[in-house]
Write a structure and sequence with these properties.
heterotrimer, A alpha+beta, B mainly alpha, C mainly alpha, B: mainly alpha, MetI-like fold, two-stranded antiparallel sheet, two-stranded antiparallel ribbon, 4 strands, C: MetI-like fold
Chain lengths: 368, 307, 267
């Protein structure tokens, strides 16, 4: 776990303490954020990940100052910024819609923040061309913002937010409007810029793949709560609860009984009677009934043997690999992902009997 | 340090206060020079009329309201219906209704015609409707007067063709008022009709023809129901100003063919009966409100089915 | 015989009715304009082409006064109404509903709901008394009355423009260290400008065109161009009135065309 070890030594850039945000009043009140606490460290690429309506954008807007929390406090480098209006907060936002000023040119958009801060003309000019160079938009500096493409607008929005050298950059699903290829390019670009500028990035997305590729740490959110915070590796391989396991990637859920725990590793018995070892989620159950998750790529379909078994119900070909859907004897569905070879089929057809062999250390016991 | 909740509610209170302050000048001006005077007028309708116009301030009476529909015989004090007033009410409602129907009959095909033009020429047609709309009402009434009077172009044309020997007396008749109102209010019918026809999905018309409807059936069963919000809006936009028309009947109707607006003016002028004028004004306002309520009810209903 | 294929969009006869409608809309105006150039004394007999009635009107001091008064009232009323309407439009849009918002909206649009003649006599009642009490009977009363009924007209396009405007733009400005006033000056106002110009022009035309309210509010000797014309129409009509009307018409068309072009550039 190299990231978390390194990150803990750095200063705290943003801390959200027990944030509650409700919209509306009385019976119609909507709890958008429910006791959210998060610590974001300096220089980190931190992602808020979750489905739409989970509260991730609300949290971002609270940090930017466009909304006020109902309860709780937000600290920027240890200082409570509750009373500061957005124009006094040293954070800048890249808006989902970009929000480029349509009556200003690209360069004027980028210069706006510096002008508002009262910087000298010479300083502004220098900084604008520097930032435009960073996003590779120098050539289009004089263009009107309605004369540039979506990808270019994205870069301008980024340049505009970076120009005043904010302590923290907030990015609200900045890539969602771009097509797939452009999005992939921009993901790499954003990583590069974060490394070059050393600014703390708080990134909001609903795209789990995007979150996994870009982030140092991820907070998975659902229904206004933070479910798990950790490195991409933690989140993917050691999901703490059912929602996280389900939301990030594909996974299989197996009911099991925990027999005992030793050195943080649990011994569990599956419904087939087979006993396997599984890692325990932090604060997870140590006794009795539990759910165990296994990623499809961490299991193999075999003709004979395996800890569990069933009948092949579907074989789905994906090019790089094949998904074999096995209806287990206890009625549950288990999906196995197998890499394809050029010369051979996967060896199973619908109706075949198949065993499932789970890799050692592949199983994780969920919290609930 | 204030708590998060206090800061949030304080911010909201400040915002609401600022918004009230921002709209205050507009509200004040409208109160002083539009809404406030209406309330004063309401009070005036319950006062005793002054001998030379105005009212006897502070002396109250229901005479003004009485006189709207009734009149007291000077000799034996018996109450009878005020026939003159009733006929003016009737003329106002009748002419407004006829104006609405006529503008609808002319405006519907016109709006449909515009809506089916190619996109780039449509704007020009709409513009052609807008120009008369923004031309001074008095000028248009005056123009109509020149067209329909005895020596005007209509009579000259008819005489030249030989249809008539003597000029048709159109001026100073109800016809003159009707022609004037149709001409003046036609754009008010075409514009909302066009607005809803522009949104008409012609795939629905195609579906109608596909299902064996003929042209008339498509018009009656598909197009008209779909553009009914425009029909209602246009009708109300024509009916309401027609009801309150003042300039058109004054210029085209002559002294005898009064509408409600002219009857009201008369009370503040030669009639010297301000309480009656005030009561008539409020009656007119109520008529307009009834028409508006009818519109709101129908608009929300058609909005529910087509929106 | 060539067979015409079935036109989905056509309804028989509608084109003819439409042409008839446009003829109705433009024929009277055309007649009015043509007779403005009549050399003859009367409006009934065509006596050859002449611009003498324009010259006559131009040199008529009553017309000059009325035109000047119309212009003064329209400029003041439109400017004040546009200011008030802009502020009110900003106050009533783009926020979570707040207590009194609907009331403000209804209040501002109220002058559109009441027949002009009713407002006119109500103003007569109140202003005639106020004129006596204050001893002031200048143009101020007319400007005040005009401002009130111009506000809803100025308010409509400004409000429409504001509602179509992206709220995140001002947030972005605030995010980039602009104070609320700076954000308004540098972002909101420039983007709002077409709406404000449209609102001003509407208010200006509406004020310029008004007959009824002016007729009832004006004191003696305060004729505007429309009330002057109204007085003239009742008397014997010479082509001078046609000339005034034609000039007035030209001004309206220029304003409306300008309005049309501004709206077109926006889309």
């Amino acid at each position: 776990m190299p990231e978390s070890a390194g990150a803990s030594e750095k200063r705290v850039a943003i801390e959200a303490r027990g944030i509650v945000k409700t919209f509306g009043q009385g019976a119609n009140a909507l709890r958008a954020l429910d006791n959210v606490s998060i610590v974001i460290r300096e220089n980190e690429f931190f992602t808020l990940l979750g489905p739409s309506g989970c509260g991730k954008t609300t949290l971002l807007r609270l940090i930017a100052g466009f909304e006020y929390p109902t309860e709780g406090a937000i600290l920027l480098y240890g200082e409570d910024i509750a009373g500061l209006p957005p124009f006094k907060r040293p954070v800048n936002t890249v808006f989902q819609s970009y929000a480029l000023f349509p009556h200003l040119t690209v360069a004027e958009n980028v210069a706006f923040g510096l002008q508002m801060l009262g910087r000298s003309k010479a300083e502004i000019d220098a900084r604008v061309s520097e930032v435009l160079a960073l996003v590779r938009m120098q050539e289009l500096a004089a263009r009107r913002t309605d004369q540039i493409s979506g990808g270019q607008a994205q870069r301008v929005a980024l340049a505009r937010a970076l120009a005043p050298s904010p302590k923290v950059l907030l990015l609200d699903e900045p890539l969602s409007a771009l097509d797939y290829k452009l999005r992939k390019e921009m993901q790499i670009e954003l990583k590069r810029m974060q490394a070059e500028t050393g600014i703390t990035f708080v990134f909001v997305t609903h795209d789990q793949e995007e979150a996994l590729t870009m982030s140092d740490r991820i907070a998975v959110m659902s229904k206004g709560r933070v479910l798990q915070i950790g490195s991409p590796w933690d989140i993917y391989d050691k999901p703490a609860d059912r929602f996280v396991a389900d939301f990030i990637g594909e996974t299989n859920f197996l009911s099991a009984i925990v027999l005992g725990v030793a050195d943080g590793v649990a011994k569990v018995r599956l419904t087939s009677g087979a006993e396997i070892s599984a890692t325990l989620a932090e604060g997870g159950v140590a006794e009795g009934e539990a759910t165990v998750v296994v990623r499809p790529e961490h299991a193999r379909a075999v003709k004979d043997g395996g800890q569990i078994a069933g009948v092949v119900e579907n074989v789905v070909y994906f090019g790089t690999d094949t998904h074999i859907h096995v209806r287990l004897d206890d009625g549950e569905m288990f999906i196995v992902r197998q890499q394809n070879s050029r010369t051979q089929s996967c060896g199973f057809e619908v109706g075949d009997r198949a065993g499932v062999e789970i890799d050692a250390d592949a199983a994780q016991v969920l919290k609930d | 340090m204030a708590s998060a909740a206090e800061i949030a509610s304080q911010a909201r209170r400040t915002e609401v206060r600022d918004r009230w302050l921002l709209s205050a000048p507009a509200l004040l001006i409208i109160f002083v020079a539009a809404i406030g005077p209406l309330f004063v007028m309401l009070a005036y309708s319950f006062m005793v009329k002054g001998d030379y116009g105005d009212v006897k301030f502070g002396q109250y009476s229901l005479d003004g309201w009485f006189s709207v529909f009734l009149q007291r015989d000077i000799f034996d004090d018996t109450l009878t219906f005020a026939d003159a007033h009733l006929s003016i009410f009737w003329r106002s409602i009748k002419l407004s209704f006829l104006t609405t129907v006529s503008t609808l009959l002319l405006g519907f095909p016109t709006a449909y015609f515009i809506a089916t033009r190619p996109r780039h020429t449509r704007e020009i047609w709409v513009f052609l409707v807008t120009i008369p709309f923004w031309t001074n009402l008095l000028i248009r009434t005056f123009a109509m007067q020149q067209v329909i009077r005895n020596e005007g172009i209509v009579n000259s044309l008819l005489r030249w063709v030989g249809v008539i020997d003597e000029p048709l007396q159109i001026m100073h008749t109800d016809w003159a008022i009707l022609f004037g109102m149709v001409y003046v209010y036609l754009p008010l019918m075409v514009l909302p009709l066009y607005a809803s026809m522009e949104k008409l999905d012609f795939r629905l018309v195609e579906a109608g023809y596909d299902l064996y409807a003929g042209r008339l059936q498509v018009l009656r069963r598909i197009i008209i129901p779909l553009v009914s919000p425009g029909i209602i809006a246009g009708s109300i936009l024509v009916f309401i100003p027609s009801l309150g028309a003042y300039v058109i009947p004054r210029v085209l109707g002559g002294g005898k063919n009064m509408m409600l607006g002219n009857l009201i003016e008369l009370q503040f002028g030669a009639g010297r009966n301000w309480p009656l004028g005030a009561a008539l004004s409020i009656t007119l306002m109520v008529l307009v409100m009834v028409a508006l309520l009818f519109y709101v009810r129908n608009a929300s209903r058609s909005g529910a089915t087509h929106g | 015989m060539a067979r015409r294929h079935f036109e989905i969009r056509t309804q028989p006869g509608f084109g003819l009715v439409a042409l008839f409608t446009f003829a109705i809309l433009y024929l009277p105006i055309a007649v009015l304009v043509v007779y403005a150039f009549n050399a003859s004394e009367s409006v009934t007999v065509w006596g050859g082409f002449s611009v003498k009635w324009f010259a006559e009107a131009w040199n008529n001091s009553a017309v000059q006064d009325a035109a000047w008064r119309s212009l003064v009232i329209a400029v003041f009323a439109a400017v004040i109404a546009t200011f008030a309407a802009t502020m009110a439009a900003i106050a009533t849009t783009r926020t979570a509903p707040y207590p009194g918002q609907g009331f403000q909206y209804a209040f501002i649009n109220q002058p559109l709901m009441v027949p002009e003649i009713v407002t006119a006599v109500a103003l007569l009642i109140v202003f005639s008394r106020l004129k006596v009490w204050t001893g002031y009977s200048g143009l101020g009363w007319l400007i005040l009355a005009h401002t009130a009924f111009c506000i809803p007209f100025a308010y409509l396009p400004i409000r429409a423009r504001l509602e179509g405007m992206d709220l995140t733009l001002e947030r972005a400005a605030a995010d980039l260290y602009a104070t609320p006033w700076q954000a308004f000056r540098r972002v909101t106002l420039p983007l709002l400008r077409p709406g404000i110009i449209a609102g001003f022009m509407l208010a200006f035309v509406i004020s310029l065109d008004d007959v009824v309210i002016t007729e009832f509010v004006k004191s003696g000797g305060q004729d505007t161009l429309p009330t002057y014309m109204l007085g003239q129409i009742r008397r014997t009509v010479t082509p001078e009135v046609n000339a005034i009307a034609t000039a007035f018409l030209a001004l309206s068309i220029i304003l409306v065309t300008g309005f049309f072009l501004i709206n077109r550039r926006k889309t």
